Amino acid sequence: METQRRNFLKSAAMAAAGSMVVSGASRSLPVIAAADSLPTGDNVTWNKAPCRFCGTGCHVQVGVEDGRVVAVAGDKAADVNKGLLCVKGYHVGSILYGKDRLTQPLLRKDGELVPIEWDEAITLIAQRIMHAPERFAFYGSGQWTIPEGYAAQKFMKGGLGNNHIDPNARLCMASAVTGFLATYGVDEPAGCYQDLDECDVLITWGNNPAEMHPILFSRFIDRRSRGDKVTLIDISTRRTRTSDAATEYLEMKPHGDVAISLGIMHLLIASENYDKAFVEKHCNFRGAEADTPTLHGEQISEEEFRKRIAAYTPERVEELSGVPADKIRMLADLFANRNIRITSLWCMGMNQHTMGTAINSLVHGVHLLSGHFGRPGNAPTSLTGQPSACGTVREVGTLAHALPGGRLVANPEHRQQSEELWNLKSDSINAVPGYHTVKMFEQFTKASADGGDIDTLFVQVTNPGQTLPNLNALFNDKQGLEDKFLIVSEVYPTATTRLADLILPAALWVEKNGMFGNSERRTQQWFKMVDPPGQARDDCWMTIAIAHKLFELGHEGMQDKDGEFIFAVKDEAGKDVPIWEFEHYYDVNVDKHLFEEYRRFTTMKHKNLAPYDEYVKARGLRWPVVEQPDGSWRETRFRFAAFDDPFVAEGQEFDFYHSSSNDGRAQIWFHEYAPPPEMPDEQYPFWLCTGRVLEHWHTGTMTRRVAPLNRAMPTAYVEMNRDDAQAANIRQGEKIIIESRRGTAELPVWIDGRGRPPRGTVFVPFFDETKLINHCTLEAHDPFSKQPDYKKCAVRVRKLSEVQS
Amino acid sequence: MIWRRLTTIFLAAVIAVAVIGYFVGLADGVPAPKGLHSHGLLDEIGHHHRAVVRDALSGEDSQTLVVPAIDKVIPAIRYAEIAQVAMGPTAALQATLVELPSSPYDLFAEIQLSAADKEASSALRAARRAFNGAPPVIPHDIQNTNDAACYACHSGGTQLGGMKASVMSHEFLANCTQCHASPPPAPFQDVDARVATSFVGLPAPKSGERAFPGAPPTIPHSQWMREKCTACHGGPNGWAGMESTHPWRSNCTQCHAPSAKLDQAIPVDGAVPMLPPLEVASQ
User: Fold this and answer.
1) Is the alpha carbon torsion for A95, A97, A102, A104 positive or negative?
2) Would you call B120 and A27 a contact, using CB atoms and an 8 Å cutoff?
3) ipTM for the assembly
4) What is the CATH topology of the domain spanning A106-170+391-519+529-578?
């Protein structure tokens, strides 16, 4: 009773928090009774953890009292955020305490969810896999911790010989990966956040860091308030809070970024203003093959490059992008100036793009061609949206085509190396890449009789029922397919658990040990601080428990060459620790065992990681982390540059040592502009762009359960231009229907809201599970990265009265 | 002739229809923009407020929050009358200004600390943050304004009528709303944003520790983001009941010890490291 009352008081008080100080009245809000059971602050212990939300990778100090998180503070010792947090980060502790946490395994029997025991759940899954291992698929995310992703990866590709494992990061940064691979031959940024402290000009390409990466944004923009002369140029399809702070706002048409980057390169070449010395020494030119374009294309001469790019005059670029020719010249002049330092930032605008690989490569190309590369402050910087999109997905390689440490399943040498490191029989790993995300869900939601050859799908740490594009085609069709079985490990009921056949309650964030890897190659570690509620358990444990059940059932893949269980952990006496029994899972540090095993994969691509214990001491370390003669471990801030990267060849200033042309050079790409796959027409006259807001993280399953955040942004909305609204007789706050060729969504209108789209464009955030905009979005995707384009499709807007009549 | 008369009648009819149509059009029920006459958020808060008070005082409904109806619509002036009309602030606003209390702050005025004030201030502070140390939420409407708009009132704090803008307790940082959660956007103030949570945040400390009666108390909270002591403890815009009794002394930490642990200044795991005890030879 006491607990209930104090909670009520607290939440009522929080609800009252919005009160304006009007006359004296609301100053005398009721005193929260200092009940005995309230945390007193006397016994709070503090410990470090990376924030659970975005890819920035801020460290927080978590205050725990009596087994509960009671406070969060910015970690002053953390280099990323230096003690500051954003509004989500400050409230990250509350995400554990939504009243509707899932606390027991639930099985759907005759349409009803009934509680079952863990053992029954694990056995059920193992039996389904045993029955048809090749029809099983594993879908995870960039929120998997590194050990969780590594265990899933080993279980699938090593154990089952099944490559149908893919993460939601496919929807998020797959094009960034292909952009890096095409340009440098190896993934992930060369620079780090220090670039934001040292650049003179920051260019945001379809990026709104003021809301999506606030800590990085303020790291840059606070320099202005301290008196630094900094210039922010925002290239975007709508005005955002980043535009509000920008020196220059360049409004482009969708796909305009491709034309703009080509236009800059054209002017640099035409005026002979590019960095000839840098390009001659360190770069090649590259273009797509005429017949069947591949990721690595073919080398072209500088002459050929000049010839192809000559068409992209400022006037032509103005026509394609909508950005005035003079502004293209202004950008080219900036890049031609070697005395200033320029950093580019991008995230989903360039990644969720049917030309994602192309535009990523082109922006890298602009920096390489102009020599704005490799010195602090000069960097093309790609950001990630999930806490371990880099650490788990890109480095551990939990993608349908990849193996740990930058290896590929299609490469026999890589398969052999992985089999050796895992101590598996040869040919355990399947050589054919598995299904990427869109394909995986197509196959899962298609009836078996029609060739849908995935029938058991295990989803961990993500919410595809809300985030997949074109939900009607890729998710909702699962309903009614009797032989399809959806397993979802979750912390709260979500759009995905709606259709789940088996729901597993998961431990979240500091309820378990973990490791993340952020956008600047920083690997971070934390320890479990509180117990998960009820029977909720670690995702990593689930994978190991299923693997062990298969081992017991006699699945050959679950034992290594010597007949040992593939996840066997020995104690000091050499005896097996039964980590597949949850009571014994924390008898040892499973994370440490898995990480030490995984670490051996990382040296091939020079992404060396330090031993686990080094990460315990640090607020993250940026790879490559290399051991020094004195036994200490040194992190690397700037890759490929001799002054900081230990792997650069002697005597070189720069060395792209994984170059796809095998000559230490990076590739400057040419790609022809192509229009978006679906454009507004008479029937569907509006562009639809989707995205995020400051207060909510991704599908809102966590942040929508946090009072101050949900109050600040209680609903999704349609941002609409005032003139468009007026022309359609739509009023502020009115509910309308957004309709595409694929589906509809009903949302209230916000005219001239936080972002201001130009005429003919509407914007909708995707965080609200009650207003699923992904019913409307398009599944058309980039040919190389297979990442869909959530940023542009054609819709129409209809008043409710029109639809009802 | 006949067609000319018919034209006149026809035109008269057209004009009549137009005039009637015009007035009907004016009164066709086009709703006024929301929020002009009532304030959804405040109504809601008022409701909560009463509910909370009732609960806290076990059913005794002792207080009601009165939200003054502010009529923001000012009648327009006809062109013909412009020359005769005084322009500038409205009569209502001029009256407000005249009534503004003049409160010159006296640095040396004697401070009488009131336990009741402190309790009230603490409660209001607590109501605006999820836990002690969290950045307070913004308790008033904001447009999508820039930092300068926040800074105008919150740099030095201000009081206007019954409203008080507190002083920023930290140095200027850009992008205010990245830490301070805003109230719902104007069009969505009526959306039910309640959440079901069992999170209970760390409460504010009641007071610092004193080594002995009369000793200066220690600082019981982190100084991070609260470097400006006078933002809360004294000054004209601080919290009632939490004022310093000696606001003219400006080097606070000379007497009031901060906490190394709370300030994350040095890692403190258990005991503070000391040299081993002296080896004193016995006999």
Assistant:
1) positive
2) yes
3) 0.82
4) Rossmann fold (3.40.50)
